[in-house]
Design goal:
The complex is a heterodimer. Chain A is of the alpha/beta class. In chain A, strands 6-7-8-3-9-10 form a 6-stranded mixed beta sheet, sandwiched between helices. In chain A, strands 2-1-4-5 form a 4-stranded antiparallel beta sheet, with helices on one face. Chain A is globular. By secondary structure, chain B is mainly alpha-helical. The longest helix of chain B has about 40 residues. Chain B is elongated. Classes of the chains: A alpha/beta, B mainly alpha. Chains A and B meet through helix 2, helix 3 and helix 5 of A and helix 5 and helix 6 of B.
Chain lengths: ~250, ~210
């Protein structure tokens, strides 16, 4: 399913980004419709993570335009906070705040950004921790949690602002293989609820089973994209074929 | 023995008091100044940064004793009159603040970038990220180096003897000049006094670190 640009939740048009003399993104065009699960695959250093970081302004783009729920990231009148409360982000290294309990990790943004009362924020956080299966760990600190549990708390934290789109930056790459499943299960559940998701992943099972759209990147460009079935089973570009033959 | 006992009251009284006063006042300046400058640098304003870097590098690049001489004897010639004890506090405090600023800056940059990035991605502003996420984690990492700085300040307060402040060392020196047999007992007493000031600082550091951990 290809979305019309007008109805896109996230769209990138001609996005360019360089770090120094290194061109990380070369004319990226991508459109993600509401409810879509867009999975970006490709070798390390191909610019996958940078795409995500351009969407919530963690990285400023050099050219082109990114639009999130109608907000243009290059528009200086669009405030960071308005953009970021629409975009939840989950990191490879979890990045939980180690000096806060799981509950406080999740309540921080609702309190500081949305101005919720302590009671409101806690109610929301507890329900989100319940959703990721960790209600009983609300009082635990990150150091007391396994990697999989930490990442599930991080997902709950990102959901706490009720974002319109969730970005997953290699959410399972730092986890032992046997516990990636519990994180993927949460991501599957979000997909089943029609959460708009953009996932950079080294995991090929998830895009195959859950993805609605797969993007293969190499060298800062989108080489090939389409429904998972066509990209995985009938890749057209030689580079896609070569990459898939190595990872599948 | 009699001469030693005769010398003790001045040492334990005025001398100890002067050392403690100079040390504690300098520690406070180092603490407040260090956090002030260190946090200003976290704002990443180029002008503020340049001023802070210049201050830190100059103060750390000159001998403390020379700085003390300058404050005590140089400033009065420039029309800024200052007594010896306050001059010692100013010099030690300025020197301590420069070292304290580096401690705070080092602790702030030691917090992984992913931490502030996660805060920013959650919509928090720069100040909120600093206050809620980075500073609480950095604070604990400042405790041990600040306690080292504090003990260095206590030890360096003895330099004030050279500008005539009647602190522990200067009190001892005057008594020794009158009676050379007092060298060993008085200097041992002075060493014990410095240790008696510094040891609790060390203990407090360990307790504070545990508390913040």
């Amino acid at each position: 399913m290809t979305a019309e640009p007008r109805s896109a939740m996230v769209s990138l048009d001609g996005v360019r980004k360089s770090f120094g003399s290194h061109e990380v993104l070369k004319d990226i065009n991508l459109s993600v419709a509401p409810g879509e699960v867009c999975c970006i695959i490709g070798p390390s250093g191909s610019g996958k993570s940078t795409i995500l970081r351009c969407i919530n302004r963690l990285v400023r783009i050099d050219g082109g335009e990114v639009t999130v729920d109608g907000l243009r990231v290059t528009d200086p009148t669009v405030k960071d906070v308005d953009l970021r409360r629409r975009v939840g982000m989950v990191f490879q290294q979890f990045n939980l705040f180690p000096h806060m309990s799981a509950l406080r990790n999740v309540t921080l943004a609702p309190r500081k950004v949305l101005g919720l009362s302590a009671a409101e924020a806690e109610a929301r956080a507890l329900s989100l921790l319940g959703k990721v299966g960790l209600a009983e760990k609300a009082g635990s600190y990150p150091a007391q949690l396994s990697g999989g549990q930490q990442q599930r708390v991080a997902i709950a934290r990102a959901l706490a602002l009720e974002p319109k789109v969730m970005l997953f930056d290699e959410a399972t790459s730092a986890l032992d293989p046997e516990i990636t499943g519990e994180v993927l299960a949460v991501m599957r559940e979000l997909a089943a609820e029609h959460t708009t998701m953009i996932c950079v992943t080294h995991e090929m099972g998830f895009p195959r089973e859950v993805g609605t759209h797969v993007v293969f990147m190499d060298g800062g460009s989108i080489v090939e994209e389409g429904p998972p079935r066509s990209v995985f089973e009938n890749p057209q570009a030689e580079r896609t074929k070569a990459f898939l033959s190595k990872v599948l | 023995m009699n001469a030693y006992l005769h010398a003790l009251p001045a040492l334990l009284g005025r001398g100890l008091l002067a050392t403690v006063t100079i040390s504690v006042a300098s520690m406070l300046i180092a603490l407040v100044g260090g956090f002030g400058i260190g946090l200003l640098r976290a704002l990443r304003n180029p002008l503020v940064d340049a001023a802070a870097i210049a201050y830190v590098e100059i103060l750390r690049g000159i001998p403390l004793l020379v700085l003390m001489f300058f404050v005590c004897f140089g400033l009065p010639q420039l029309g800024i009159g200052i007594d010896a004890a306050p001059a010692a506090i100013v010099a030690l405090g300025l020197w301590g603040a420069a070292n304290g600023a580096e401690i705070v800056r080092g602790a702030l940059v030691s917090i992984p970038r992913g931490q502030s990035e996660a805060g920013v991605a959650l919509g928090l502003g720069r100040i909120a990220v600093l206050r809620s996420i980075v500073l609480p984690q950095a604070l604990r990492r400042t405790v041990a180096p600040f306690m080292s700085l504090f003990t260095a300040i206590v030890e360096s307060s003895s330099l004030a003897a050279l500008i005539g402040v009647k602190e522990i060392l200067e009190t001892v020196r005057v008594d020794i000049e009158n009676d050379a047999t007092l060298w060993t007992p008085l200097l041992l007493t002075a060493l014990a006094l410095y240790f008696a000031i510094n040891f609790p600082v060390s203990l407090a550091s360990q307790r504070l670190e545990r508390k913040l951990g």
